[in-house]
Amino acid sequence: MRVSRCFLPVLKESPSDAQIVSHKLMLQAGLVRQTAAGIYAWLPIGFRVLKKIEQIVREEQDRAGAQEMLMPTIQSADLWRESGRYDAYGPEMLRITDRHKREMLYGPTNEEMLTALFRDDVNSYRDLPRTLYHIQWKFRDEVRPRFGVMRGREFLMKDAYSFDLDEAGARLSYYTQLLAYLRTFQRLGIQAVPMKAASGPIGGDLSHEFIVLAPTGESEVFYDAAFEEFDWAQGGLDYGDEAGLHGLFDRVSSTYAATDETHDEARWAEVPEARRRTGRGIEVGHIFYFGDKYSAAMGLKVSGQDGKPLTPMMGSYGIGVSRLVGAIIEASHDDKGIVWPAAVAPWQVGLVTMRGDDAASITAADDIYAKLTAAGVETLYDDRDERGGVKLGTQDLIGLPWQLIVGPRGLAAGTVELKNRKTGDKEELSIDSALTKLTS
Ligand code: ATP
Ligand code: MG
């Protein structure tokens, strides 16, 4: 993509109305704009990041055997009356009346809807277990929307729902999602620690929150440094390996991690002092096992192997896809701007001409751009006739993993400069070596 044709509204100054660094950077680098309190438009650069995160979440859900679908944002109030949550949910629910005076709502979550869909179409024990998910916008009329997309009113969530024949099966589905979450966050390039949680309005007795460490986080966290050392993607644990999944759960449960809500001083004291980590954290995911709470209330039954009716046991599993954009920036930035983990970067390379009016630079950069694009390397090419320093400042702000800088002086010697955004390391390389490095 050529910057000369982009909608990339970068602000010169850091916006003073934003309180936390990720919100400031998302506004300054042109990722989002607020259109109403807690409601945001995703501009092209922010949208690219959102889609990358969504795709990683999707791939890991699919790998864990969950199946994607799409449920609507608008739901009927009657559906929520069946579970008893229409009144219980309170003022966070955005209630809408249509032209026929029917009561509707903008969905804050989808337990009721999927339970009703299963009630109509799932009849036999042979149709279970199943885990379904969708990635869809939610609305919660938060009292204090703040911190940009971190606590918005409209936000994008991946929510999965599992249905099993019995508690043992449902626990296995829960452990499966636990592993999928650990792998998802690891691929996103962030450290998210699972913490035992109180389950709140969703209900139920087994629940974990996934917390990313950041000084601006809303909850206080305490965990064993062992969580920083696990490599969830490796270790070859297979989703079909029941004993392995139980082992994973035992390992997670026996390694200390808690938010201020569940913190236990006695157990904390048993963690060796050198391994105690404390700080603040942001909740990026939350999983729940709640048994027959919705299936029983809404009359979902299947016929069991012996012909008798069975009430399926359920769990639900959320990831805050749009919140993650902010959370990743909180965890990965410096005083110059965002430092994207490669997996979610909007482009991998920022190609910059230091002199947009120098014919030799333009010819060389056009050629590099064509070659990178042909090799499938996502490149943002700053081809504007703008001061080099301004362009480099923009590059640091938007935080692509690599900057490839083309200037008249280097070209005379046959070289370009390759800068690693994260480390700041710079290398003078021939154009060919730079291309080899970026395309291999
Ligand atoms: P919180 O405690 O932060 O209000 P929650 O516990 O109400 O969140 P869940 O019902 O667990 O939220 O939703 C699943 C995920 O959706 C959360 O882990 C979070 O990442 C995301 N999420 C929830 N509320 C918001 C919001 N207002 N803005 C952005 N993301 C949100
Ligand atoms: Mg939660």
Bound molecules: adenosine-5'-triphosphate, magnesium ion
Structure summary, number of beta strands: 23
Q: Which CATH top level class of the largest domain fits?
A: Alpha Beta
The helical percent reads 25-40%
Amino- and carboxy-terminal Cα gap: 21 Å
Q: Using the 3D structure, state the CATH architecture of the largest domain.
A: 2-Layer Sandwich
Number of helices: 15
Number of structural domains: 2
Portion in beta strands? 25-35%
Based on the structure, what is the oligomeric state of the protein chains?
single chain
Describe the protein in words.
Helices cover about 35% and strands about 30% of the residues. The chain has helices at about 20-30, 45-65, 75-85, 85-90, 110-120, 165-185, 225-230, 240-255, 265-270, 295, 320-330, 360-375, 390-400, 410, 430-440; strands at about 30-35, 40, 65-70, 75, 95, 105, 130-140, 155-165, 190-195, 205-215, 220-225, 255-260, 275-290, 300-305, 310, 315-320, 335, 335-340, 350-355, 380, 400-405, 415-420, 425-430. It has about 450 residues and is α+β, with helices and mostly antiparallel strands. α12 (about 360-375) links the parallel β19 (about 350-355) and β20 (about 380). The model has no long low-confidence stretch (mean pLDDT about 95). The protein has 2 domains: about 5-340, Bira Bifunctional Protein, Domain 2 (BirA Bifunctional Protein, domain 2), CATH 3.30.930.10; about 350-440, Rossmann fold (3-Layer(aba) Sandwich).
